[in-house]
Amino acid sequence: MNTLFQNWTFIRGLRLLLGVIVLIQSIVSKDILMGGMSTFLIATAVFDFGCYGSSGCGTNSDKNKNTNTIEDVEFEEVVSKK
Prior knowledge:
The structure is a single chain. The chain is mainly α. The chain has a domain at 10-47. The protein has 2 helices and no strands. The protein has helices spanning 10-29, 32-47. The longest helix is centred in the first third of the chain and has 20 residues, at 10-29.
């Protein structure tokens, strides 16, 4: 339960605020689709998931792989006959 209240950023708070505003508006206008979207916004803010921030869209990078090696390159001369 303590992890829900840690690492709150400005964007995470903004998502929660927008989710609550959209939820109130969806209740006033009786719009189910907008209520579902607001529930998604609130859930992404509370549980800190989604594809925008440090918790989502991770890349598969191999940190042990050394990509700074220099390889010998052999060139072949191509001659065109005219």
